[in-house]
């Protein structure tokens, strides 16, 4: 009998990491890494939400490859060094935005110094800066072995020799946001990346070369959503797809699967996603509610814009019809278009105030490398490249010369828009309550029992957000808003009767926290750093 020595092949190991913390703040002190504080409720003073969004691509790719992996999220630099010293074959860095250029360069230098043979992979929207020549990008290019410019699962599977078309599993940490310390959790799914529309300024569409890459089929998406709904009672999932409603066949199949499944009642099964006016105009709010839609992020951009994605229903009426059906909105608005003058910008701001999105992202027009806007600005000699650093490259920056507005007025207009929305319409917590009250009234007596279940969902949220109304009535930014909050309290009592003891105590507690935040802002409105986490896959040590 012959014995062969058993050769044990050492499995390769990969470390995924985001950039290291502590993270900076924007000029006004709001945290850059906080989606709600830094963007969607920015400028809402003590009513600003706090949030932590997990770095989804890291978890997605780590889950869908074959070799042992470790994911570090927001590590301090020392923890990242210690992890690298354990010895890895690959280091994959999530380069989420070009503004982290200097941190990515530091990580690459450190990794090669600790382990010269380690293969470095860069992925994420930030990689668009690597081909530029502003800030010694040549050095970064010399340190990096692979650049993932596009969808990461397929890229990494190809690199590791894994089957590229195997089904994709999605398991992410939950996203957390909080309001006056009250925490709310939701889930995320990545249904698709990229967008075919190719709007001139759009970095995501340019990054995926105007292609849309589907990661989940309609039936996989329904199954994932159901699973999230089962494990989390306040079940809400944010579905990433730059324009979910653009693929008619996909939406049709998804809608019919939802309609046929008794587990997908509109009261239990809710999700939000991105849509454009043009693609959403094909559906009535009732059809959207039947699909489980609870929240939509829609680009308002500007009332003067002729972008194809804005064609369709009247924007103001459309937002009002969504709110009326209990669908909350995130509206994005951009300051600094070539057609903006100091006269029409005022009209544009008035318009976005009238549209009244529940949450709003107000930013400046930012040309990003690889977009058509970037190329045009370059061709027209309008990019301000003197003293340029990627560190200042973010949503509120100002990196090109404007045609009719003074460059240094852009930030002022951004701020003016945020303030007007806040002072006229109120904080997002009040607007969320208003949308839930509208949704409750819309569906509670509907002839279809399926839609009646949606009313119970809104009722639950009215009970929760009611507790914040007294704080808005006392500390709202203007008399108009304080009056709206008082009216909302009366509406609540008319609809649901007197609040419970728990709600009384909750309201009192939130008024107290609001008062402390109002009078001692430096203690309560400080910038939080996102948590550090280490997640292990397939037995990595
Ligand atoms: S529709 Fe939205 S995601 Fe698509 S290209 Fe335009 S801005 Fe980008």
Layout of secondary structure:
Elements: E1 14-17, H1 35-40, E2 50-52, H2 56-63, E3 69-73, H3 77-84, E4 90-94, H4 101-114, E5 119-123, H5 137-143, E6 146-148, H6 152-160, E7 175-179, E8 182-190, E9 192-193, H7 203-207, E10 213-214, H8 218-231, E11 237-240, H9 248-260, E12 271-275, H10 277-280, H11 285-290, E13 293-301, H12 315-324, E14 328-335, H13 344-355, E15 359-364, H14 372-379, H15 410-425, H16 428-443, H17 449-475, H18 479-496, H19 501-519, H20 521-524, E16 533-537
Parallel strand pairs: 1-3, 1-4, 4-5, 5-6, 8-11, 11-12, 12-13, 13-14, 14-15
Antiparallel strand pairs: 2-7, 3-16, 7-8, 9-10
The structure holds iron/sulfur cluster (SF4).
Iron/sulfur cluster binds at residues 195, 197-199, 202, 204-205, 242-243, 276, 299, 309.
- Beta strand %: 5-15%
Strand order of the largest sheet: 2-7-8-11-12-13-14-15
Helix content: 40-55%
Q: On the 0-100 scale, what is the average pLDDT? A: 93
> What structural category characterises the helix and strand content?
alpha/beta
Cα gyration radius (Å): 24 Å
The multimeric state of the shown protein is single chain
Total discrete domains:
3
Largest sheet entry: 8 strands, mixed
Shape designation = globular
CATH architecture assignment name of the largest domain: Alpha-Beta Horseshoe
Question: What is the CATH superfamily of the largest domain?
Answer: tm_1862 like domain
Separation of the first and last Cα atoms:
38 Å
Q: What low-confidence regions span 5 or more consecutive residues with pLDDT below 50?
A: 1-6
What's the CATH C level of the largest domain?
A: Alpha Beta
Number of strands: 16
Count of helix runs: 20
Bound molecules: iron/sulfur cluster
As for the CATH topology of the largest domain, it is pyruvate-formate lyase- activating enzyme
């Amino acid at each position: 009998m012959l014995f062969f020595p058993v050769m044990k092949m050492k499995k390769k190991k990969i470390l995924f990491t985001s950039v290291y913390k502590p993270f900076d703040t924007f000029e006004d002190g709001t945290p850059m890494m906080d989606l709600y504080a830094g963007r969607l409720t920015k400028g809402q003073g003590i009513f600003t939400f706090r949030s932590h969004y997990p770095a989804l691509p890291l978890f997605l790719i780590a889950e869908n490859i074959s070799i042992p992996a470790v994911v570090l999220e927001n590590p301090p630099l020392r923890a990242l060094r210690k992890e690298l010293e354990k010895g890895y074959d690959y280091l994959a860095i999530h380069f989420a935005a070009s503004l982290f250029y200097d941190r990515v360069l530091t990580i690459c230098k450190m990794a090669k110094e600790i382990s010269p043979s380690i293969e470095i992979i860069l992925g994420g929207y930030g990689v668009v800066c690597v081909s530029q020549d502003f800030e010694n990008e040549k050095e970064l290019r010399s340190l990096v072995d692979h650049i993932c410019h596009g969808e990461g699962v397929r890229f990494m599977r190809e690199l590791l020799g894994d089957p590229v078309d195997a089904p994709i599993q999605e398991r992410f940490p939950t996203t957390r946001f909080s309001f006056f310390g009250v925490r709310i959790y939701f889930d995320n799914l990545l249904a698709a990346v990229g967008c075919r529309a190719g709007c001139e300024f759009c970095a995501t569409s340019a990054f995926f070369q105007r292609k849309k890459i589907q990661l989940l089929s309609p039936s996989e998406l329904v199954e994932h959503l159901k699973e999230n709904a089962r494990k989390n009672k306040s079940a809400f999932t944010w579905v990433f797809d730059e324009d979910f409603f653009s693929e008619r066949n996909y939406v049709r199949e998804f809608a019919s699967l939802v309609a046929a499944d008794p587990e997908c009642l509109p009261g239990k099964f809710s999700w939000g996603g991105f849509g454009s006016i043009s693609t959403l105009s094909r559906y009535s709010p009732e059809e959207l509610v039947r699909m489980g839609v609870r929240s939509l992020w829609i680009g308002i951009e500007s009332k003067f814009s002729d972008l194809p994605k804005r064609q369709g229903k009247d924007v103001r009426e459309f937002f009002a019809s969504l709110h009326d059906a209990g669908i909350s909105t995130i509206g994005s608005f951009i300051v600094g278009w070539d057609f903006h003058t100091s006269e029409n910008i005022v009209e544009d701001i008035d318009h976005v105030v009238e549209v009244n999105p529940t949450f709003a992202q107000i930013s400046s027009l930012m040309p990003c490398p690889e977009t058509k806007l970037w190329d045009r600005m370059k061709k027209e000699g309008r990019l301000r490249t003197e003293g340029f650093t990627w560190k200042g490259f973010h949503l509120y920056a100002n990196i090109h010369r404007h045609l009719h507005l003074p460059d240094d007025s852009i930030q002022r207009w951004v701020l003016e828009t945020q303030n007007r929305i806040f002072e006229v319409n109120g904080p997002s917590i009040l607007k969320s309550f208003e949308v839930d009250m509208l949704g409750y009234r819309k569906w509670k007596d509907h002839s279809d029992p399926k839609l009646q279940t949606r009313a119970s969902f809104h009722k639950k949220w009215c009970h929760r957000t009611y507790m914040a109304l007294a704080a808005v009535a006392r500390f709202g930014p203007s008399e108009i808003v304080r009056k709206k909050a008082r009216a909302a309290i009366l509406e609540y009592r008319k609809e649901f009767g007197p609040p419970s003891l728990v709600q009384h105590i909750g309201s009192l507690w939130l008024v107290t926290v609001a008062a402390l935040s109002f009078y001692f802002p430096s203690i309560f409105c400080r910038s939080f750093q996102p948590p550090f986490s280490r997640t292990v896959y397939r037995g990595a040590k």
